[in-house]
């Protein structure tokens, strides 16, 4: 059956137009009133956009985050332990906390604080950037690390411990949480996401029910050989609405954990961590690229971004850099010239501004430098890094445009993106609704060009379509 969406403006400032959809594809676009179909839906004062896509999500961690105790407001480890003690679960269950910011604490976390408050209850607390996990002794025993001296795990050790912890919950229970959470996304206008969970994502998404959004399931190194042996290539179909995503490597750490690999020192004279040496990174990326898997490399510090861009150049492949938070000015043009997507999360720019001012003092003019990257021709794609930031594309767009979310003046307003650029980046780099494209569409009320910051953050989604199927209708 064919359907015409009648009269909505196409994109920001576009004229009132008709869009015909047949068999899940946009087959015609014309002036309002010029197209007919078996079904006509009048849009009135609405805007039709290419479907919104979150370019960086950790799906399982996101749903677990929704079931964790919020510790974002605590000022130190003792206070965090007191808050957690008040949330002590029934016997036999473990307790999860989230969103601590140790970079702003005067006392570092240590297992003794949690042991004193909750000795017999396994406790796991994740930092706001997911690069640090803080356990008590009972929690360490759960993941096979009894006797760890501090209970504070960082980077690869933290990622692997969290994966072992995730395996303690039955897969069917986790899948139920995921189905419940994903059901909310079409109401935000989302039509797709890239899942970069550290897991056997292809197997996980094969067993799950059809999601309401398209999922591109990322592959990590422990599962790379199996994916290659199966002949998996980025973009291949895994299940209904699920495709093979990129190949993910974490090359350095994070700002909050002070492990992002930088050319200049942090206040403690450290330079962060190179987690994957360049020769090993090149070997892995070549292997994946030769098999048809597109690399998506986490790089936050400027030294890490330089190293990763160097490897992209030596291989001659395209791909993505995830985060690109601090970039040397000499590296900015290389994103465009090498065809490397800058996959960025604008919410980090506003939530991390105080930490950046403290730890990257004197360098913040090129931190989260979205306008500089755009002006140099880089393709930007927006995401949330959920659960690091809320999985809400309108918050990401507003943060990219306004560079503040708490009433303070914009942080480095020279790096703010024009609204049309931010919207395009939120639509996975697609600027318009085009004939021949898959009918993944987001229909919103009114003209976004006149929206205030508050109105932009609470944009009214009228309808969301995935492959022409209505996944949400207001």
Automatic annotation (TrEMBL):
What name has this protein been given in UniProt? Amidohydrolase family protein
Under the heading PANTHER family, the entry gives:
IMIDAZOLONEPROPIONASE, PROTEIN LONG AFTER FAR-RED 3
Any idea where the Amidohydrolase domain is? 39-472
The species is Cryptosporangium japonicum
Xref: InterPro entries: Amidohydro_3, Metal-dep_hydrolase_composite, Metal_Hydrolase, YtcJ-like
């Amino acid at each position: 059956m064919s359907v015409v969406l009648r009269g909505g403006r196409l994109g920001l400032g576009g004229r009132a137009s008709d869009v015909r959809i047949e068999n899940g594809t946009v087959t015609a676009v014309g002036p309002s009133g010029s197209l007919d179909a078996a079904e006509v839906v009048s849009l009135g004062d609405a805007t039709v956009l290419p479907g919104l896509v979150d370019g960086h999500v950790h799906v399982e961690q996101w749903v677990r985050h929704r079931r964790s105790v919020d510790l974002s407001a605590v000022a130190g480890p003792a206070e965090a332990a007191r808050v957690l003690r008040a949330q002590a679960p029934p016997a036999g269950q473990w307790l999860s906390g989230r969103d601590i910011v140790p970079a702003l604490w005067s006392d570092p976390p240590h297992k003794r604080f949690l042991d004193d408050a909750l000795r017999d209850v396994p406790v796991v607390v994740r930092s706001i950037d997911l690069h640090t996990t803080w356990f008590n002794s009972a929690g360490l025993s759960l993941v096979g690390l009894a006797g760890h001296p501090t209970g504070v795990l960082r980077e690869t050790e933290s990622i692997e411990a969290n994966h072992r912890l995730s395996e303690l919950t039955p897969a069917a229970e986790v899948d139920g949480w995921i189905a419940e959470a994903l059901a909310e996304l079409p109401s935000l206008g989302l039509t797709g996401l890239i899942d970069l969970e550290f897991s056997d994502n292809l197997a996980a998404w094969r067993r799950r029910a059809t999601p309401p959004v398209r999922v591109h399931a990322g592959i990590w190194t422990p599962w790379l050989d199996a994916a290659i042996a199966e002949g998996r290539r980025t973009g291949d179909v895994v299940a209904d609405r699920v495709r093979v995503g990129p190949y993910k490597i974490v090359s350095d750490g994070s700002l909050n954990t002070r492990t992002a690999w930088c050319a200049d020192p942090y206040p403690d004279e450290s330079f962060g961590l190179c987690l994957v040496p360049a020769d090993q990174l090149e070997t892995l990326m070549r292997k994946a690229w030769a098999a048809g898997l597109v690399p998506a490399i986490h790089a936050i510090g400027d030294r890490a971004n330089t190293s990763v861009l160097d490897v992209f150049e030596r291989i001659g492949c395209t791909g993505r850099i995830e985060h690109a938070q601090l970039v040397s000015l000499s590296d900015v043009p290389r994103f465009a010239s090498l065809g490397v997507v800058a996959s960025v999360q604008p919410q980090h720019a506003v939530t991390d501004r105080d930490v950046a001012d403290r730890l990257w003092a004197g360098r913040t003019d090129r931190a989260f430098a979205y306008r500089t990257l755009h002006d140099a021709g880089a393709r930007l794609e927006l995401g949330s890094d959920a659960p690091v930031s809320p999985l809400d594309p309108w918050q990401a767009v507003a943060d990219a445009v306004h560079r503040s979310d708490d009433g303070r003046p914009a942080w480095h307003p020279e790096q703010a993106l024009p609204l049309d650029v931010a919207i395009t980046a939120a639509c996975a780099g697609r600027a318009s609704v085009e004939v021949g494209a898959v009918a993944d569409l987001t229909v919103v009320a009114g003209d976004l060009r006149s929206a205030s910051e508050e109105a932009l953050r609470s944009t009214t989604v009228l309808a969301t379509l995935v492959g022409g199927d209505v996944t949400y209708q207001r």
